[in-house]
Amino acid sequence: MYFPSRLVSPFRLPSRRLLSRAWLALFLILTGLTHAASTITSLTVSPPSDIAYDAITGKIYFSTDGTADTNFQPCVIPLDPATFQLGAPINVSGVRCGALAISDDGQFLYLGVELGSVARIDLATQTVDAQFDIAGGDAFDLSVLPGHPHSIVVSGYNTFSIAVLDDGVPRPATAYDYNFESLAFGSSADMLYGTPSNGASSSFDRFAINANGIALLDFTPNLLDNGSLISDGTLVYGNDGQVVDPKTRTVVATLPVTGHVCPDLARNRIYVLQQTNTNGDYTTNLVALDATTYAIIATTPIPAATEQADRVIRCGGHRLAFICGFSNIVIVDDDSIVPSVIGVSPPATTVEGAGTLPAAGQVTLTDAQPRDTVINLTSGNLSKITVPAQVTIPAGQLSATFDVTVIDNALLDGPQTVSVNAAAAGFATASGNIQVNDNEQATLSVFLPFGVTQGGTVHGSVFLSAPPDSDIVVHLASNTDAVSVPATVTIAAGHTTGTFDLAANEAGQFIGFEIAPITAHVDNWTDGTGSITVTDPSYTDWTSFGNGAGHTGYQAILTSHRQYVPGWSVTYDSAASLQQITVAGGVVHVAPSFLYATTAFLSGLDADTGLELWRQSLSNVNSPSAPTVDAGRVFIQTTATNLTTQPFGLLYSFDATTGQPLWNSTYTATNFRPVTPVTAINGQLWLDAGEEIGQAGFDAAQGQPLFSNSVNADNGDWLPAWYNGTLYTWDQSVLNALDPATGVVLWSTAVTPGGPQVSRTPALANGHAFGVSSPSLFAVDLTTHAVAWSASANFQGTPAVAHGVVYGISGGDVLAYDAQTGAPVGIYSTGDTIWIDQPIVTYDS
Questions:
Q1: Do domains 342-437 and 445-535 have the same CATH topology?
Q2: Which uninterrupted H or E stretch holds 842?
Q3: b/e sequence 435-461, b meaning 16+ C-beta within 10 Å
Q4: pLDDT on residue 34
Q5: 186 Cβ partners below 8 Å, 6+ apart?
Q6: What is the pLDDT of residues 349-359, one digit of tens each?
Q7: pLDDT at 707 over 70
Q8: Which Pfam family, an example, fits this chain (predicted)?
Q9: Which of 57, 304, 492, 637 has the most beta carbons within 10 angstroms of its beta carbon?
Q10: CATH number, domain 749-845
């Protein structure tokens, strides 16, 4: 539903319990004619809380608390906006009613009822189909998922949450502490927009929806005034006049007037209900704007609207309707504001030389006319498409068909888009496009260099088997996120080659060698495919837990299945126990763990000989974390041994080659906590700051704190992970996605809770997060935020992932699964009893 909410909560309107049957009587007040084709009608009805329009039956529905004759039982009343006739009330159980939402197929109307329920009305039978409990909350706003009439979003679920309900059953994940009185979907059911209630901080919030429920994706402060928004499926409009692109979260335009907005894409118009308040007296205008230029087209004064108005909706014909004041619905019928328009729809695609396609095109009217409408047709390219000069829509009808003839021009010109234009006296010109695919054949080829280093850019070429007669737009695509290519490349007329740049992405994890295919496509021609090998420049290093910020456990070396042969060894103090090491630039970094240490150290060894190159002592600290290396620096964290020292956490940076100290930083932390390694990439650091603080972020260059938050604050021994610009944490049964610069939680996905586990670190690759909630292994899709698959065994630790396969440890076995589907791939029994750890996967595993 694309409608904004009311300016006040539906359950905070004045009491209406003294109403009588007279309120249900319909009083027609003709308040004036602005011109011969404009009628403004104010209807006094039982005080409406909300209105909605069913385009299938052409009825307005308004919710009301009822009358004395209905024992003040909440109800929904149908209203014919053409005849102003009321239908029979549809009673629901409860005290007071509020927000309405209608499914886009006209099957159901949903009504929020005070004291914790939502009623669903079957519009075909005009009866209450079901009434759902919403855990004691009040439905501040409702919205039906586009294309899913049985599924709704409720703001106010359990009082302080936004929830998704399927036939009244809530999905597991809810967005807690969000009470919005204005919700709207875009063009799909997986993204919801909202603004906080009046009085709250102003922001534009986006929520991601999947099979598991709903989660806050992000919020942008001060983008829209809170209280009201509406979507046309592409853009979002606020009653402050701001027009927002929800994908980029930016203001793309400001309307010349402010007020409640109603978009009408069929007419390329935006209607704004503009009001000015002078000492309680409202002056109201209905303003029509061009939806492309936002210029004012027409303005109609509404003298009947002298009180505060709310929610303007289209209601068929040339009409708009809105609630005004305590007990009025105003219907405006004005063809200067809402004109009739013609449309033309040729077939979407065809093939050159197809000949005449009978009745393949259609012209339409938004409103039936009292006399025949003659529409003149023209083709934008007569060498491709011809249409009849005229087609007539008979009086009282809404459409007519016409033939489309497809010409063969014997040219190699690829797909061509041809416009078909329709014009009629008194109507704006309309046009529709048809893509004509070439029946002359050609073959594409893609040529790429043999390889590219991760982070680098190379040139690629697309070749055509014959020079075309027109410019050809070739579509490029790759099925891997290891590389980026432009969406299209153009081969000029008379030439056979087009060039493009290919970028090898820095994925935040070590990929070793990956073959990236590139496909070139033109409709109705033969595709071309080429491939390039993407190489990680540091594939012989091991820089952190899991070998990179994605913690995949992948080491891109060739073992050639050789047997393990011991090389050099170094012995440290018998009181020390070794942790994971790092290897970078020919230096092995070792930070032994000491029980109740007073002097710990970080040691650098020659990777070829094992000789100690340098050692840096750390006084009066507990045992340090395992090291992490990034951009030529090595990082460790630890805690002070002095219990009175505050802040308690210590973070160190050293030159990874020489061991030279670079900086140290402090942060508040708890004592006697497990100290886990640092996650580092792109000049930022993130770490587990203990059971009271949670997560902390730092600048890698100087050690300056960036943020701290309480994510995973109740659990120790975990590492954040980074993937494609987003930070992730895994807390047994919840995957959190966070902004790496601010620590703000973008969304969360819960899985079935498991038993206790020591490691709470996910591995991220191939667009998924893989984690263990013992005893199960889970894969979460990072695009849909839904659990993609799970596998049950006795899993512990962090899984590893490489080459599209996920590896998990269960007892003494390593189990392998397809990363996309979760299908079992194989099992390897080690013969040992393994408690918890992460497998290491090599290039030829």
A1: yes
A2: strand 841-842
A3: bbbbebebebbbebeeebebeeebebb
A4: 38
A5: 193, 231, 233, 234, 236, 246
A6: 999 999 999 99
A7: yes
A8: PQQ_2
A9: 637
A10: 2.40.10.480
